[in-house]
Amino acid sequence: MSKKLSLTLAASVLALGSLTAGAPAIAAGDYHDVAKEKAPKTVKGNGQSYKERIQEWKENGKPGKLKEVELQILGTSDLHTNFVNYDYYRDAKSNSLSLAKTGVLIEDAREKNDNTLLFDNGDLIQGTPFGGYKVSVDPLGKDELHPAFAALESLDFDATTLGNHEFNFGLDYLDNALEEAPFPVLNANVYDAKTGKNRFTPYTIMDKEVTDRKGKKHTIQVGVIGVVAPGIMEWDRANLEGKVIAKDAVETVEKFIPQVEKAGADVVVVLSHSGMGDEVHTVGEENVTYQLTEVDGVDAIITGHNHDVFPGSYSELANVDQENGTINGTPVVMPGKFGSHLGVIDLTLEPRGKTWRITNGEAELRAIDSTTDEVAEQVIEAVKETHEGTVEYIRSPVGETTAPINSYFSLVQDDPSVQIVNNAQLWYAEQQLAGTPNADLPLLSAAAPFKAGGRNGGDYYTNIETGEIAIKNVADLYVYDNTVFVLKLTGADLKEWLEMSAGQFKQIDPNATGEQTFINDNYRTYNFDVIDGVTYDIDITEPAKYDGEGAIVNEGAERIENLQYEGAAIDPNQEFLVVTNNYRASGNFPGVRNATETIDFAYENRQAIQDYIVEEGTIDPSADGNWQFAPVEGDPNLVFETSNAAKSLVEQESAIQYIEVTQNGFAKYGYTIQ
Known about the structure:
Elements: H1 3-19, H2 28-34, H3 50-60, E1 69-76, E2 86-87, E3 92-93, H4 99-112, E4 116-120, H5 129-137, H6 147-154, E5 159-161, H7 171-179, E6 185-186, E7 190-192, E8 203-211, E9 217-228, H8 232-235, H9 237-240, E10 244-246, H10 249-262, E11 267-273, H11 289-292, E12 300-303, E13 309-310, E14 320-321, E15 326-327, E16 330-335, E17 341-352, E18 355-367, H12 377-382, H13 384-394, E19 397-401, E20 405-406, H14 416-433, E21 443-447, E22 463-464, E23 467-470, H15 471-477, E24 483-490, H16 491-501, E25 515-517, E26 530-532, E27 535-538, E28 560-565, E29 568-569, E30 575-581, H17 582-585, E31 597-604, H18 605-616, E32 618-619, E33 627-629, E34 637-643, E35 656-661, E36 666-671
Parallel strand pairs: 1-4, 4-5, 5-6, 9-11, 11-12, 12-16, 19-32, 21-30, 25-34, 27-33
Antiparallel strand pairs: 1-17, 2-3, 7-10, 8-9, 13-16, 14-15, 15-16, 17-18, 19-23, 20-22, 21-26, 24-30, 24-31, 27-28, 28-29, 34-36, 35-36
Helix pairs in contact: 5-13, 14-18
């Protein structure tokens, strides 16, 4: 239905209400007699919510159109191989995550409504050691069903789409995994670079048998389109460049809507592995779900990628209805991460000749029960072999550490969890570069704190105890399946790289007296690169030069001060080598994008760290303090949040003071620039 028509009809209904003020409310059955034209999907028959009507039906019987059908669309997103209620990094059961926990909600929803469809929104095969195990330890066989798809099959999923992390292991691996998938795996905006044709199945039409309120069966055709953030071309350039191209997600959906409708779809669902975004559309941008809610013909959206929740977040956007779970009149769900929530979209449809129209659409999230061990056992059984193999693998020892390693304070000071990664990358690259023309160039290393709370919660931090280090701990230090790259660039480029990283911090006023939060929560912590081999200060009284996408926002800003190599100021024209990963090397970071040479070692960063620890036997995780905040005048009252579990560590940190517990496992801390 067109949005313009919906708005016009909504206005007509409001006008009718004003003319009949004081008159009895229009009954549900009477509404359909009044509105002869197509009704907007956000108009509720008698002013009741769907839940209120359901309760009234239970008590008094169902009024209104007996041929109406209540179609329920269930959705998950960003499972990231969390199928079993198990935290592989802690090597312990966890009831706060997993598809096995979500499965309980799915089964409950189906018991209450037979007219259900179930979709996943991508980022399925990567994310924990479980995913890596099926790549490097027990590689997926040619005709083997990937355990991720086996998990979904155990719950009778109807379709899924490709997330950006589906491309992390390369197209050959992805093709092999998709070959045995027992349901449609969709993507409409990735095209073959040579032929220009869709690389994957863009959409599917499902004949869904439903039962109306009278008990009569009907068939409704549901069209499903899948799209992914076009940023895959940067994030996995090494895997994708020259092989595929990714087009704008909004334009792609607009292109395929007429085809899906022509194929007979009564309802169109978009699986959008793209974050929410904002009201302004820029072609090719990463997050566009908001714009998809404005596309004519889109009836429901399952989104994700942001690891956030809707309904819940995004109230600052225009035309957001948190109570009914709609944006611009379109029901939307963003069901968190790792199986934390089930998205539920309820559509009411009525027949119009041989087709169906939507008279109401609402959405909600249902959180899993983290207080019990109840799971959908069929999911556990479907992935049992891979799960048990993963657990055995992650327990294998590789070395020892003389002190604890954690990332609680990794955003406010040089940190052991980042230091070890840089040490390992330098160790590996030195060996690989020996005897090459680049061997005599200064070698640096860049690494970021991957587990630093943020959108993933107050328990999402690296925390390794003194003593034995196992493979699970290495995975805890480096959670992504990246490979080692070395870049050649200049001292000037190096400074811009660090200016971009310094966007992690908000600008502070050294003379202000109130509390100032100086961590930029909207900046992704995996972009806060610490470059070892040089020393530098970060002046947070200056504004950030770049925004989170690498665009200049303050031309003359300079946060990076005293940038030195071997005790001397960096020569802007001097050449350096920097060890990093494929994600950074393929991206659009300032400085990085000017690299004159890129060396791909096609070796996992995580494996390099493991090799380093095995070689060393016992490691000292002390940070070398190569960066710090530049001194400031005055005595600003700076505060930040990190895990409440870090409370016991503040006695060892002269610059940090514990203040109070906040929420979701976080606590507030004070910070003194010294």
